[in-house]
């Protein structure tokens, strides 16, 4: 072959033949690179946050920008709809098309016709909804959102079909390319990971809350058990002390009447003797002067009377100890609440009386007509002890804060007012006994009132309170079918309001329901008169 027969190819033809594959490869590489970048940003967002709304919005934006789609949305099925209803929870859409977020989607043929396929991981790529032989009901739903072509990938939470990743082309039909479908599937896989993590987070939080609640209940039960054991032990101790004191006191008080009688007889004899024998020997007259017989005659009856009063006082204390430490049986017994209040006040008398460093606390008891109330006496007495003790604590703090003038009498006079009344049942059935314990202290701040009945909450220094007094009191009242309320305004004192049913009709300990809490709205019929005296 000579050189004349050899014709090299024109340069232009060679460039055109090789440039098309190169351009296609370059475009594919560029798309793949952008795909990796978008996927990386979605994964990074998942690692940064567990907030699903943020993750969904990032994914929708990245997919719409990369695929140049008109709308990309994350659709969630309503849990109880059978996959026939749901809503878009996130969306990225061009401004020229309407948003799908505000619309509720109901497709009654989806659950029966398509849900199972998506549950198996099927991806639906429709280039034209009007040429894809879709069911009419489904086409109507798609047409509502101006959709011409769509790419739908299932979002699975484990094996459960949670929702769909929907990619819409609204302006015209579109042929979805394999790499686009693959990219959408990769994004859906990452969203599935986010769903799993969110579910795990919710489960972990629930478990943590349940464990915290269980721990709190165990701590409360343990502390209440300790308090109950202490109270039981104290009750046994008080009962033993009362018994040991009662015997000698009865002996003393019983003999005081005889001693008084003997003393009167001796005084009469001495008086008669002095009248009959006016001339006494000097030695006897000297001895009578030393003994101050006239003073003895006058003072000895007073001495015996004081001893009788002291004995009666000891008897009252013994009775109060017995009442306060009365062991409860499983059966609630009719109880005189006034007797329980009096016993509590007697036991707290040392805290109410004036001291060298503080004025005494005045107690006003205004008792109404109360029927005997069926209750566990020991427990209700514990409530009285806690509430009155708290009132004394509040007044002691107020007394310490007050600075009385040295020249003027103190303006602040601490007072505890205890009122009782019986209110009828509106339905004419079981009446309720009301006990109102109020003080004229500084009151309780609103922030403290909100936590007042929480176990272990206390405003007292460490070692001076367990934070269980009001919590236990509330539980006792509630278990009796009653209510324990607190009303307080800073600067106006505090009032605790107890309501107890007179009869325990079908109420068993531990199964009754009741109410508790703090209130600034409730009307307290006894509070107005308490405030007027404060």
In total, how many domains does the architecture comprise? 2
Which ranges are low-confidence, i.e. pLDDT below 50, for 5 or more consecutive residues? Answer: 1-17, 508-516, 518-534
Q: Helix amount, in percent?
A: 40-55%
| Second-tier CATH architecture of the largest domain | 2-Layer Sandwich
Write a structural description:
With 534 residues, this protein is of the alpha+beta class. The protein folds into 2 domains: 11-201, GAF domain (Beta-Lactamase), CATH 3.30.450; 330-401 and 412-534, Histidine kinase-like ATPase, C-terminal domain (Heat Shock Protein 90), CATH 3.30.565.10. The protein contains 14 helices and 14 strands. It has a 6-stranded antiparallel sheet with strand order 3-2-1-6-5-4. Strands 8-10-11-13-12-14 form a 6-stranded mixed sheet. It starts with 10 loop residues before the first helix and ends with a helix. Residues 1-17, 508-516 and 518-534 have low confidence and may be disordered.
Give me a quick take on this structure.
The protein contains 14 helices and 14 strands.
How would you describe this structure in keywords?
534 residues; alpha+beta; Beta-Lactamase; Heat Shock Protein 90; six-stranded mixed sheet; 14 helices; disordered N terminus; disordered C terminus
